[in-house]
Each structure stands twice: as C-alpha cells, then as structure tokens.
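Quick one:
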Amino acid sequence: GTPNTYNSIRGDINLLCNWSWFILGKDVVDLTLKEMNQFIAFCNNPPVELIGKFSCSLIDQQKSDDQYIVINDNWKPFVNRSSPKSYKRSESSLKTQLSNLSYMYVFLEDMEYSSSNPAAVAMRRLTSAIKIDLRPDRSEVGHKGMSSLQVSYLVRTLEHISKSDPEKYERSRFLFYLMIFCYPRISEVSARPGYSPVFGDFEMHR
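Output:
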C-alpha cells in the first residue's frame, strides 16, 4: 500500500530470484529450507561488490520513461551506512526479509504454482547459528535515539515556539507528543498519494 513497502518487497524478491537463478541455478519454487538458510547466510555476509555506502533508487528516473527502464549505476542490493565498519544487518531486518518473501510464496500457492513456503519455515526455525552474525536490534537505537536530556530540551523548545507562533509550530508540537506517547508508524501520520490523515482519523478509547 505504500511505496517503501513495495520497494522493500520488490527488492527482496529480486535478490532471491537472482541468487536462486544465477548461484544455485534453481527455480525459486524448488528451494528447500536448507537452501533458504544458505540464502540467509549469503545476505548476512554479501560480497563486497554488492554493498553500497548509501541507499539510492533502483531505477534511474531521469533516464527512464514509460517505455524503457534504466537501472541506476549507483544502486546496490545491500547498504552499509556504518562504512568503513563491516556490514552487519539486524535480526529485525532478516525477519522483514523472510516476511516479504513469505508473501511471494503465499501468492504462488494461491496461483497453484507452488506448494511450499521455505521462507515461512525458515522464519519459524531461525537458529542461533543463523543469528550469530547479526547485529542486536537495539544497537542502531543507541545511535538514533534521543537521551532524556535531549527530549526535555526538545519539549521546552516546542512549547516555547508553539506559543510564540502557534499557526506555524502547533502541528510540530502535536506530532512530537503523538510520536512519543502513541508509538504510531510514520506512515500512519504522514501524507502520501491517496492518503492524508486528518483529525477525524483519531479516536479516543477508554
């Protein structure tokens, strides 16, 4: 339903198909649990030439049109934002990938093209041997999260500027409290083509 979700699912399917076709020489519907675990291991430690230092679009929008698609030369299937540190992905990233691939296999089952879902089985049977190379999920939060002191300064600043110029800053104040206390997804409070949240979307529950 959102561009980011679509791009995430497309990227994971693209990666699995290329790995299955060009490395194993197999159809994705013939993959076993063992081979799905091999794919996970490949994604945990991908070749250096497949890792980029920043995220960019797969398609070069300036050179592409409705008739012809040009791939962005800077695009890489893996991104290491911690470069020059070695590439590490989190357990949550792995689970998201397997969930995306499971959607594909469910679709193939619905179309009666496949009778197995190795991605779903792999997600249920994640072992410590597979997780050993993964980064703890909260390691990134330590870098991106705000301290209590930072939050207190932000609260005071928002209270001050929203009183001095409410027309401009009251929305920022509201969104800050909403994100801090209600834990919504960003997609639930941000506008996008076809959806723009309004106050009528909020309900109070006892």
